[in-house]
Specification:
It is a multi-pass membrane protein. It is found in: Membrane. Belongs to the major facilitator superfamily. Sugar transporter (TC 2.A.1.1) family. By secondary structure, the protein is mainly α. The protein folds into two domains: 183 residues, Up-down Bundle (Growth Hormone, Chain: A); 216 residues, Growth Hormone, Chain: A. The chain has 24 helices and no strands. Helix 5 runs antiparallel to helix 6 and helix 7 crosses helix 22. The radius of gyration is 23 Å and the shape is globular.
């Protein structure tokens, strides 16, 4: 009776709750393999983890420059302007692959797109380690950025589509944890190889990035394709087979398949045709040109997703990740080993608090974490600005106390950033976008994310020269305060809702 009631219900949260409450008392007959299985699906966790590991390479390559540039300046003869451009160029270069990633993911599939991303990571790491001029390094940075763009768009889409609603928040946030693992490993690499000869150390830092993508790509080949993509291709039998392996119960799998079929049937034009003819251009035209009541909620969704991705980077956290050595040197840390050791602490704190945010995403919800994160980042960034201001005007600017206060402020910023901004934004954007715009919408959101990040990272040194380094962080604190208002007034809670229920939620 319970299963029959669920099958006839709409794809709503109440149906999911009913399934969860009855699964233990009325075990489905055709699935003896699931008797005694844990309530949370482990196979979905493995799949989401494999997809997310690719984003670790993005984090590694993006922030490796923070320490490597200390040695590249002298070895290659880079100027301050060239370092600024080289550090931030990856975010701008990523726009090309980000905007194409939606079409590629719809055309090739999520899994093969992730394999392609790893191939670009291999080529980019090899080219960076062999670069001998600014032009060669910029070209290598572009190759790496293609892989980064594909990974940053497709991994969250795959995770949202493979995960059951009961754990979608946590599984979608895994990729943010791996990005930060990559950031931590880049800082460790900076520190570990800083003692090598000048011409060799930074090349080894990049060269070791050639090996991991090979093994990651091999692992990705063993995970199943997204059931959503399979259904978009009309392969409903294959989609159901994947859902049976990635759902908490067979009843959940049938419910999810029914929701997917309805979403595919309602899409105009059909998703498979859209993927073959421009990746859904008709949907964008319908959304941006035509005014129909059915598109009101989708426009609200896009506004929220794009706004969130803008604010998460306008907070200035990448200025800390990329230029923390300059920040620490501004308060008197003169030794390269001390500076690079401090960056390792940043990576460790950021990774730990990402894990905290991931664990609480499905328990507390997305909205509370985002509110706490934006308020915390605004406060701690302002504290960092005050610390830098006092350090720059005080006769004790080079004291250990000032350096310790600066490090504590930086660690507080990255901690508060990680519990919400760093662990929720990608998951929130991927889950609220409707099927017909999910891949392309994620591409557009990530384009806004990377463009904003590129502006921040490519202007920090120049901006600090103009309004001082404390002035930069006061500006970032003000922007993050505005982000708190945006989250409070615009973003609804999505915890526990099915992917197909989002348009209804945003229509209210």
């Amino acid at each position: 009776m319970a299963h029959q009631a669920v099958s006839s219900a709409d794809a709503t949260t109440e149906a999911l709750l009913l399934l969860s409450s009855t699964a233990g008392t009325t075990p489905p007959a055709p699935a003896p393999l699931l008797v005694g299985a844990p309530r949370r699906n482990r196979f979905a966790f493995v799949c989401a983890t494999l997809a997310s590991v690719t984003t670790m390479l993005h984090g590694y390559n993006l922030t490796l420059m923070s320490g490597a540039e200390l040695f590249m300046r002298e070895d290659v003869g880079l100027t301050d302007g060239e370092v600024e451009v080289l550090a931030g160029s990856m975010n701008v270069f990523m726009l090309a692959s980000i905007l194409a990633a939606g079409w590629v993911a719809d055309h090739l599939g999520r899994r093969r797109t992730l394999v392609l991303a790893n191939a670009f990571f291999v080529a980019g790491a090899l080219a960076m380690s062999l670069g001998t001029s600014f032009a060669a390094l910029m070209a290598a940075r572009f190759v790496t950025s293609v892989g980064s763009g594909l990974a940053r768009v497709v991994a969250p889409v795959y995770n949202a589509e493979i995960s059951p609603p009961s754990t979608r928040g946590a599984l979608s946030s895994i990729l943010d944890m791996f990005i930060n693992v990559g950031i931590l490993l880049s800082y460790v690499s900076n520190y570990a190889f800083s003692g090598l000869p000048l011409h060799l150390g930074w090349r080894v830092m990049y060269g070791i990035g050639v090996v991991p993508p090979v093994f990651i790509a091999a692992g990705v080949l063993f995970m199943p394709e997204s059931p959503w993509w399979l259904a978009m291709q009309g392969r409903h039998g294959d989609a159901r087979a994947v859902l049976l392996r990635t759902s908490d119960t067979p009843a959940d799998a049938d419910l999810r398949l029914g929701e997917i079929k309805r979403a595919v049937a309602d899409a105009e034009p059909p998703p498979a045709a859209a993927a073959r003819h421009g990746g859904g251009a008709g949907d964008w035209k319908q959304l941006l040109v035509r005014r129909r009541p059915s598109t009101t909620s989708v426009r609200r969704i896009l506004t929220c997703v794009l706004g969130l991705h803008f604010f998460v980077q306008a907070s200035g956290v990448d200025a800390i990740l990329l230029y923390s050595p300059l920040v620490f040197k501004a308060v008197g840390m003169a030794s390269n080993s001390a500076v690079l050791g401090a960056t390792v602490a940043i990576g460790a704190v950021k990774t730990c608090f990402i894990l905290v945010g991931m664990l609480f995403t499905d328990r507390l919800g997305r909205r509370p974490l985002l509110l706490a994160s934006t308020a915390g980042v605004a406060t701690t960034t302002a504290a960092l600005a005050v610390t830098l201001y006092v350090g720059s005007t005080s006769t004790m600017s080079s004291s250990p106390a000032t350096a310790a206060a600066c490090l504590a402020s930086v660690l507080a910023v990255v901690a508060m950033y990680s519990i919400g901004y760093g662990s929720v934004v990608s998951a929130y954007g991927a889950e609220v976008l409707p099927l017909r715009l999910r891949a392309q919408g994620s591409s557009l959101a990530m384009a806004v994310n990377r463009l904003t990040c590129g502006v921040v990272s490519m202007t920090f040194i120049s901006l600090a020269d103009g309004i001082t380094m404390p002035g930069c962080f006061f500006l970032y604190a003000a922007v993050t305060a505005a982000a708190f208002v945006f989250v409070y007034t615009r973003l609804p809670e999505t915890k526990g809702r099915s992917l197909e229920d989002m348009e209804v939620l945003f229509h209210k």
